[in-house]
User: Which sequence fits this backbone?
């Protein structure tokens, strides 16, 4: 996955405007009754990068740049979902994300800390991510994978794989033919 670098010392009005917009919309969302019509309207306003049909997303949510999240159809996201989203996050169809999951696309340069190093994260179709999982920059999680609760995903996880631990490591391969 290609790394981008963002020097925070260089003003970027578009980025700053999106950070502010995200913070303001998130504040409204996190103060609104879940499952209400108003909540649904605010969710669509938040995810300008795209949110598919029949999603179930329950706050509170926390993120930096909401336009960098791209959410497929029938995605379920539980409360306390957190994103450091200087890079793009792609969450494909039928993914389930449990409570307290963090997806991180950025880090700081080890020597020049005002510089962000950024790599996109891609969660493919039909993935199940357990509670309190952390996914680090540049990771792709393959179709039908399961990430066990509390895991820290530092490297790509193949399709049809159960991975657990810190760092997450594959412990079992699922039968791909059993998925519909």
Assistant:
């Amino acid at each position: 996955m290609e790394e981008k670098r963002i020097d925070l010392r260089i003003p970027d009005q578009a980025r700053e405007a999106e950070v502010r917009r995200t913070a303001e919309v998130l504040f409204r969302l996190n103060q609104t009754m879940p499952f209400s019509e108003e909540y649904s309207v605010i969710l669509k306003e938040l995810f300008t990068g795209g949110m598919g049909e029949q999603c179930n997303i329950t706050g509170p949510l926390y993120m930096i740049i909401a336009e960098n999240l791209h959410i497929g159809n029938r995605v379920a996201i539980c409360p306390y979902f957190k994103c450091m989203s200087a890079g793009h996050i792609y969450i494909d169809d039928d993914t389930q994300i449990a409570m307290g999951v963090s997806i991180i696309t950025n880090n700081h340069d080890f020597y020049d800390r005002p510089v962000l190093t950024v790599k996109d994260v891609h969660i493919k179709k039909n993935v199940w991510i357990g509670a309190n999982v952390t996914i680090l920059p540049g990771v792709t999680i393959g179709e039908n994978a399961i990430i066990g609760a509390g895991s820290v995903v530092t490297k790509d996880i193949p399709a049809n794989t159960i991975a657990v631990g810190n760092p997450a490591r594959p412990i079992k391969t699922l039968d791909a033919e059993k998925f519909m």
Summary: The two ends are 29 Å apart (CA to CA).
